[in-house]
From TrEMBL:
It holds the Pfam family DUF677. Coiled coil: none annotated. Belongs to the UPF0496 family. The chain crosses the membrane at residues 209-227, 233-249. Its main location: membrane. InterPro entries: DUF677 (IPR007749). It is found in: Membrane. One of its GO terms (cellular component) is membrane. This is UPF0496 protein At1g20180-like. The lineage of its organism: Eukaryota, Viridiplantae, Streptophyta, Embryophyta, Tracheophyta.
């Protein structure tokens, strides 16, 4: 009996020292003020009010084994993930970069794992109710003198000891694989981002050189056209337009901002760079979040295993003194265990929320990068319709401008466009 009691005291001391280590680690990984602000946002509150309602309606008596995780049907992630997977499928014709597709895939898998963790946390709370009942019943007892009460306590402990640890659903090996996969994606994204920056820099330099060549070519072209145009009657009317076209283009180029000077193709490169940059930042945050979550999961997993071990030892021993020590151990660390469980839940929810926000920013960049109808193109269409109507009008047959338009077509449209830019703006 003395030996058994000594073994129990030694094991309980080890448990206390482990709990102190866990407490120190928990202090290091506590949610900071920035996280607390995120918890108070409207989108966060709305999202997780829906989650808790969904969790309460779902049965958690049986969780999938760790080996069946890839085939597990994810309900909450499909319900809460934004944008949803079907939305991404519909806009695949927007020509995503393959790294962006990998990013969205990583976010989807991370959300699935977050859901599994939330279900495991919920199941852990359900299982831990047995320990809470033991603590409540022990407070009503006096010196554990009632054998009937002690028998009920032992039954509760026996039931807890036989339960499977809910946090074993994701193993440390799986967390390590997730970490390595996301790190590899992060390296690819950052490498692509730097490459795009270099391309944009080279394009700016080449654009400056090209603009000088363009001025020379425009000047040469206008002089050549003027020489040819003055040999015909139409040239007498068109010559001022040619000059206006040239100077209008020059004025338009000077009045545009530096972003418009880079042209649409350069804009696409910069848009892709912004998409890659946001994706890289999102993956970086995801890596850090999952590293923190994996540490918290491992600590709580060890605590549950420790509780199960001392509960099993208490059942095997069957002594009142041993039962009293075990219950005292549970009472001492009850609040600490629940705080760690709450911290893990908050980190998991925040990870889900961060993934959603990052995905939304990337999608917005992709949508903004899509080409819109050029304003000059719209003007040309409008003028074309006007000229066609004028050509059909009998009263305009003798009009010199209409006659010129009839034979010069698109050339005259450009003349009118640049006249408008010069004199109406």
């Amino acid at each position: 009996m003395y030996r058994g009691r000594k073994m129990l005291q030694t094991k309980l001391k080890l448990g206390r020292s482990r709990m102190e280590c866990v407490s120190n680690l928990s202090d290091k990984t506590n949610v900071n003020e920035e996280y607390k602000e995120a918890f108070r946002t409207k989108s966060y509150v709305e999202m997780w009010s829906q989650v808790h309602g969904q969790l309460e309606e779902t049965s958690f008596n049986r969780l999938p084994s760790s080996s069946s995780i890839p085939n597990y049907h994810i309900n909450l992630s499909e319900y809460l993930l934004k944008p949803r997977q079907e939305t991404l499928d519909k806009i695949e014709n927007l020509n995503f970069h393959h790294l962006l597709l990998d990013y969205f895939k990583a976010g989807l898998e991370a959300c699935g794992l977050c859901e599994l963790l939330l279900r495991s946390i919920h199941q852990t709370r359900v299982y831990y109710q047995k320990i809470r009942r033991v603590i409540k019943m022990s407070k009503r007892m006096q010196n554990f003198s009632d054998e009937q009460y002690c028998s009920v306590l032992l039954q509760e402990l026996a039931g807890f000891a036989l339960l499977k640890n809910p946090l074993s659903i994701i193993s440390p090996v799986q967390f390590q694989e997730i970490h390595e996969t996301n790190e590899d994606l992060y390296r690819k994204l950052t490498s692509k981002r730097e490459k795009i920056k270099r391309q944009a820099k080279y394009k700016r330099i080449s654009k400056q050189i090209g603009s000088l060549c363009l001025v020379i070519s425009h000047t040469t072209l206008v002089i050549a056209l003027l020489v040819l145009a003055f040999h015909s009657m139409i040239g007498i009317i068109a010559a001022p337009g040619l000059a206006a076209c040239f100077f209008g283009i020059r004025k338009k180029k000077k009045s545009k901002s530096s972003s418009n000077q880079q042209g649409f193709k350069t804009s696409l490169v910069e848009r892709l760079g912004a998409q890659i940059d946001i994706s890289a930042k999102g993956i970086y945050i995801l890596i850090n979040d999952f590293d923190t979550i994996s540490r918290l999961v491992r600590n709580l997993y060890d605590e549950i295993e420790h509780y199960k071990a001392i509960a099993s030892m208490c059942i095997r021993n069957g002594k009142i003194e041993v039962l009293k020590e075990v219950v005292r151990e549970f009472c001492m660390h009850d609040s600490s265990f629940l705080e760690q469980l709450k911290e893990l839940e908050e980190h998991t929810k925040l990870c889900f929320h961060t993934i959603n926000r990052s995905r939304g920013l990337v999608i917005q960049e992709i949508i903004d990068a899509q080409p819109h109808e050029d304003s000059d193109h719209g003007k040309i269409k409008a003028i074309t319709l006007t000229l066609n109507a004028a050509l059909q009008s009998s009263s305009a047959k003798n009009c010199p401008i209409v006659c010129v338009c009839k034979y010069t077509g698109p050339f005259t449209l450009w003349v009118f466009l640049n006249f408008e830019h010069l004199f109406l703006k």
